[in-house]
Structures are given as C-alpha cells and as structure tokens.
Amino acid sequence: MFDRFSGNEEIIGEFGRHSYLMNSDKLNERDKEKLDELYFKESVWNRKSTEEKEAGFKEECDKYSTALKILSELLKKHHNKNVIILIDEYDVPLENSYFKGFYPEMVGFIRSLFESALKTNDALERAVVTGCLRISRESVFTGLNNLEVNSIRGRDFGEYFGFTVDETEAMLEAYDLSGNLDIVRSWYDGYIFGDAEVYNPWSVIKYVKDHAGAPERFPEPYWSNTSSNSIIRDLVEKADDSTRGELERLIEGGTIEKKVHEDITYDGIYDSEENLWNFLFFTGYMRKVSERPEGDDIYVTMRIPNTEIRSIYRNQIREWFEKRIKATDRSEFHKAVTKGDTGLMEDFLNDLLEKSISTFDSNESFYHGYLLSLLVGLPGYSARSNREEGDGRPDIVLYPNKPKDPAYIFEIKARKKFNEMQDGLNEAFQQIKDKEYEDGILNDGYAGSLSFGVCFCKKSCIVGVL
Questions:
Q1: Which of 116, 125, 236, 354 has a 20 to 30 Å separation from 417 between CA atoms?
Q2: pTM value?
C-alpha cells in the first residue's frame, strides 16, 4: 500500500541496487560516508514504527530530497560517465498522496528531489520523466529549464505509447488469434497519440495471455481496477444535469467538445468539470476525434475510445445508481404498490429515472434489477426474481409473509420507442395470462394476487394493473 513514507523507501532501494559503490576504489571516504548515511544506516527505516517515522518525517524528507543527485555524482565518479536518470510514472506518488491527504508534503518533496537531480546536477547526461499528466512547470517542475515535453497531443514518439495496429495484428497472429482481431480492436483500440493510433498494451498482453489456446473466451475490461477509475466515479457522483447529458451522449457513442487544459495538477482536478474531462482525456479515458483553435484556446472533440473503457463508465454509473436507490425513501412507492395505485408508482419510477444517467436503454435486464431493488424491503414481503409460477417464471413476485395477504406479480418489458410502450404493457399482461402466473400463486396456497405490467423506454415507464 502506498503511504507518505513510500518515496523514501523507494530511494533507499535504489541505493541498495548500487551498493557495489562501497567497494569502489574511485570513491573517497567522504563519498562512502554519503552512501553509508543514505543507505546502510538508513536501511533500518523500513523497520521503524509509524510513530517513529512520523516524528522524523520532515528531517528524512530533507535528507532524501538531494539523494538522486548524490547517487548520480557517485556513479559518475565510479564509471567516469555522466548518468541517465529514468523516472517512470512520476505522478503516481502525487495521485496517491492527493487521495490519501498529504499532497502538499509530496509536492514539496518531489519538487526538491527533481530540482536537485534534474537542474543543479553536473553529473546528469539527460533524464526521461514519464507520467499520465503533462509535465507542468507550475507544479513540481517549477524552476526546471530546457524541458522537452511530449504530451498525448504531441506528434513525436506517438507510436511508442502503445502497440501499433501492425504490432497488435502480428502478436495475434503469433498466438493463433488472428480471428479475434475485430474483438480486440473493438475492446482495446482507439487511442490517439499525436497522429498515431495505438492499442492499450497492457490490455492486449492480458488478452493474449488469457485467450491463447482459448480464443472463445469473452474479453474482459483489464483496465477496470486502475486507480484513475475513481475520477470517473467522482465525475458521475458530482454530475449536474448538463454533465449527465454529456455522459449519456458518450455512452451512446456520441462526442463532446472541451477546451484543452494541458497543465492540470491533481489539486486542480476538481476546480471545474472541464478539468475533470481534461484529466480523463490525458489519462486515456477519452480519445481525440478532432481539434480546432478558437482565439488562444484549443478545443478538442472527444469520445470514449473503446468497449473496455465504456464498460468502466457503465459500471461506475451502475454503482452510483444503485447507491442512489438505496438512499431513496421508498415508503411511498411501497404504499402505492399495496394500494394498486399505478399512477403514484409511475410518478415515483419516472422521477427517479429522470435524475439518473441512462446507459442501458432498452435493456430489460437493467430495468428488471432497477425495479427489484426498489421493491426489496417492502414490509411484510419477500421479493423473488424469476421464480417458477404457473407455466413460466414471472420477472418479480412479492410473496407475503402472511398467506392471507395478496402476492404481487410484476412482468417487465422494454421498448426502444415511446409509441411502442403500450404494446409492451399489453404484451406483459398477455404473458401473465398465458403463463397462468396468478393460478400458480393460488396453487401455492396464498389467498390472492395482484398483477402489474411495467414497460420502460429510456427514462420513462408506464405501469398497469391486470
């Protein structure tokens, strides 16, 4: 688990990798004292208690803020060559510290670390720093000069940020998966770096590993457990009507246009929804379709890149909606069910749907789960889904705890067009009759039943009672 002490521990580990310097005949005693101070004596850091680490945190940070510069100087002396410093995912500590609540301290530490290692370091040949967010001189890179920045919009090296089309096709062919190319393209393609189209390398590798020898397996959203998914969750939870509309348009395959802000920092992500969209763009959760200038600004038209990422949006929206349902007072809806008041039931269902983010239009299974979650908890009743009754399986039945009370049957239909909803309701009623659901309830020994037909279309529904 990442915590506020992880940066020091990573640096200690890097000193350990070069501990052979202690035996170098090109280093003097003072040089070896520096190495001893930063590695051998401080290797006990990992064995300190949290309280001990907290007490000495500021002092340790000050000590290690120049550690990379010192290590590079020692390496130059030993090898008689300037060093190359490679720092991968520089922004991961910043991201974790932001969500764990010690972002200012981490910014200060990394700023000092990078300034000493990358600016005031005569032993440096060159450095390469990578991360999801564009390197910003206004954040941890304040004071650094001569930075050559390549962002997702840059035209240099674009083909090296993922697997190219040719590379992906060659890999699939090598593992006898050429027949799965369309699936892989739909799920993991769609990223644009500069002018280059690339596939998500992590997901392609995982797909090939899982499907070599089992090409019939379903694809999976391998990127779904990465830390940046929390930003999608936050966007969904904070969404106003405008943002909900944009999310719906994206899920349906549409596009949105946003002004580009390349110098986003973690503490500025939540300053505006525009910043959130830019963060998602620069971290691969959106892709560029086109861009245009307007005055001094650049506007990018973007969309969700592929099926894998779309599934992440869908899952986050589904989780948000489920939490919203659980937090909703359903007592009036439950009363309407027991009274057979279809008007109040419709009003309640439509109001909640209107405030949702639509991602499952015409998907009957979604509406089934939606209605079931609202019915669960009706006092004196147990909800069952797809349980056999009569000659079929009604979508939902509320069974009374007391047999003298009526059972409630729900048959659900979904339609793509509003003018087809009444036909859907009629189909639900006909199915209840043809499958003799009510007879099945009576045969179970219950005193009676009441049957509802419900038809959904997008964010609307109609309810009828048989």
A1: 236
A2: 0.74
